[in-house]
Amino acid sequence: MKKNSYLSQDRLLAFVLIIAILVIDQIIKIEVKTNMCLGESVRVTDWFYISFIENNGMAYGMTFFNKLVLSVFRIIAVGCIGWYMHKVLQQKHSTGYIVVLSMILAGAAGNIIDSMFYGLIFNASSPFYVSYLVPFGSGYASFLQGKVVDMFYFPLIVTTYPDWVPFKGGQEFVFFSPVFNFADACISVGVVLLLLFFRKDMEGISETVRGAFKKK
């Protein structure tokens, strides 16, 4: 009974955390998209800006694949993470492990929502006007083709390369130039915490998963 109680608490914790991250992520994105022009930037401090950009790629604006391929890859990845979490939640694990897995799953799902629906429900963003909701299906892109909204920019160090640096001499250098969103941050923080503090948990559940496949 006590074990079942622990497992129920873990499931509830994972559910609440995933929903909370998704809601916070979408509120931020919609607020930015419907109140800022594309490329607009608001200075919060010298090292923190709210800068509205959109991208077709992965976290932090990286692009390696066609947009549709990337969207399908994201869905498969979220499905795999969700299945892994299902296996984890069948056992007793540390609360921290449940938290970081929930952060990674919710962060990945948050960006999928943009790709799935933003192209269907918003008109195209522009440097000249603020985007707004349109009738479902009459937006700027088809299903899975929507762009991901990014807004957090932390130029912690802004300087120039010394003249003697080959090819880069005299050019501007910005330490941490990517613009990212709340979902990206959850994924990154979750992965770092996972690698630093929860390797034993990962090894334990991996053994269980391998055992399950062998039984089949």
TrEMBL record:
Q: Which reaction does it catalyse?
A: Release of signal peptides from bacterial membrane prolipoproteins. Hydrolyzes -Xaa-Yaa-Zaa-|-(S,diacylglyceryl)Cys-, in which Xaa is hydrophobic (preferably Leu), and Yaa (Ala or Ser) and Zaa (Gly or Ala) have small, neutral side chains
Matching entries from PANTHER family are given as: LIPOPROTEIN SIGNAL PEPTIDASE
Name of one Pfam family that matches: Peptidase_A8
Name of the molecule in the record = Lipoprotein signal peptidase
What are the positions of the active site? D150, D184
Q: What gene is behind this protein?
A: lspA
Q: Indicate where this protein resides in the cell.
A: Cell membrane
Q: Does the keyword Hydrolase apply?
A: yes
* Family listed: Belongs to the peptidase A8 family.
Q: Which UniProt keywords apply?
A: Aspartyl protease, Cell membrane, Hydrolase, Lipoprotein, Membrane, Protease, Transmembrane, Transmembrane helix
EC number(s) of the enzyme? 3.4.23.36
Annotated pathway, please?
A: Protein modification; lipoprotein biosynthesis (signal peptide cleavage)
User: InterPro entries attached here?
Assistant: Peptidase_A8
From what organism does this protein derive? Answer: Prevotella herbatica
NCBIfam families, alphabetized: PRK14788.1
The UniProt function text for this chain reads: This protein specifically catalyzes the removal of signal peptides from prolipoproteins.
* Residues annotated as transmembrane: 12-28, 64-85, 97-121, 173-198
